[in-house]
């Protein structure tokens, strides 16, 4: 076994990140597993024709972009470019992020890619006016996991996007529909279009059906360990080992916009004493942290309650259900070691 594999782990709680506005915006790129994503590399499931149709819709969006150069994407004059916004609605793990990243790679100009949480965290950390200044002039803003469960954040993003759109920025967004949601994507899409107000008429809505690919070839539960320290020692790369409670306290002391720096350079984290959440604040911080772990493909080795069981039923039945179900899907993948 290499020296790297057996080196002593660090601690998440010792990672005190700092991040200024320029650094925050520099991190707004697709996660590393989508660094080379293209429409050709997307593998649609033939059992779900909407996946192939979504690829065609993205191709049309890109083609309309190039054919409309010079007139401004939000120009009032009629051009053959189609609607300047696109919204992908569907369940977990059907490839919406891959499609969004493929669009990002195909787009010209100054472009940004981030989750809804990343954008709202950035605005919260910098302030609204500085954030607008940073994004003004962008040709495309990609928003993964657009969320409607916090009215304040939704209105904030709607205001920001309206202001950017008025200057010619194109918008692309995705959202998740829980597998057992009434009405599937139809209600999710209607909610999205209603909440973004005047931007709604500018969006083409695309439904993407399918199964969660993260659960296709692995056990549909988070893997637990009897010895997290031993578990992380056999995974090469930089590692940390913390108690679940200490990690939660640390996350509470760091602005979510800086979580990306906490996970930077890590290959695996170990957690001991995992237990169900007792309050929603800790749960929501953990969801934001899981998103950053998933983007960086950081493995998790955990002792205690399986990580797909840390969100109590009353939380899963509440207004943040989408967030928690997305986190569960990702925790299953990260503990199984699946990209």
UniProtKB/TrEMBL annotation:
Entry's Gene Ontology cellular component terms: cytoplasm
Keyword annotations from UniProtKB, A to Z: ATP-binding, Cell cycle, Cell division, Nucleotide-binding
Coiled coil feature spans: none
A GO molecular-function descriptor: ATP hydrolysis activity
Domain of life: Bacteria
Keyword Cytoplasm attached: no
One example of a Gene Ontology biological process annotation: cell division
NCBIfam families: ZapE
Protein name, per record: Cell division protein ZapE
């Amino acid at each position: 076994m290499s020296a790297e594999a057996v080196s002593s782990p660090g601690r998440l709680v010792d990672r005190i990140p700092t991040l200024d506005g320029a650094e925050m915006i520099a991190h707004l790129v697709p996660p590393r597993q989508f660094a080379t994503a293209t429409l050709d590399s997307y593998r649609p499931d033939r059992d779900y024709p909407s996946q192939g149709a979504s690829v065609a819709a993205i191709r049309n969006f890109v083609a309309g972009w190039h054919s409309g150069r010079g007139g401004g994407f939000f120009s009032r004059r009629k051009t053959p470019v189609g609607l300047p916004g696109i919204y992908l609605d569907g369940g977990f793990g059907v490839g919406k992020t891959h499609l969004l990243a493929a669009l990002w790679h195909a787009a010209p100009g100054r472009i940004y890619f981030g989750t809804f949480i990343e954008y709202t965290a950035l605005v919260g950390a910098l302030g609204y006016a500085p954030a607008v200044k940073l994004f003004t002039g962008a040709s495309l803003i990609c928003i993964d996991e657009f969320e409607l469960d916090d009215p304040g954040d939704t209105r904030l993003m709607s205001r920001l996007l309206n202001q950017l759109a008025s200057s010619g920025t194109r918008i692309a967004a995705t959202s998740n529909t829980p597998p057992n949601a009434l009405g599937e994507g139809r209600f999710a899409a209607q909610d999205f279009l209603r909440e973004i107000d005047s931007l709604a008429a500018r969006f083409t809505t695309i439904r993407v059906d399918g199964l969660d690919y993260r659960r296709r070839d692995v056990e549909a539960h988070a893997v637990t360990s009897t010895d997290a320290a031993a578990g992380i020692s056999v995974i090469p790369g930089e590692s940390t080992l913390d108690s679940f409670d200490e990690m939660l306290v640390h996350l509470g002391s760091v602005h979510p916009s800086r979580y990306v720096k906490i996970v930077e350079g890590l290959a695996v984290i170990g957690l001991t004493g995992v237990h169900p959440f007792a309050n929603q604040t800790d749960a929501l911080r953990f969801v934001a942290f899981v998103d950053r772990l998933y983007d960086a493909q950081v493995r998790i080795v955990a002792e205690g309650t399986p990580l797909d069981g840390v969100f109590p039923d009353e939380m899963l039945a509440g207004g943040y259900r989408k967030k928690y179900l997305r986190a569960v899907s990702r925790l299953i993948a990260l503990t199984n070691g699946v990209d």
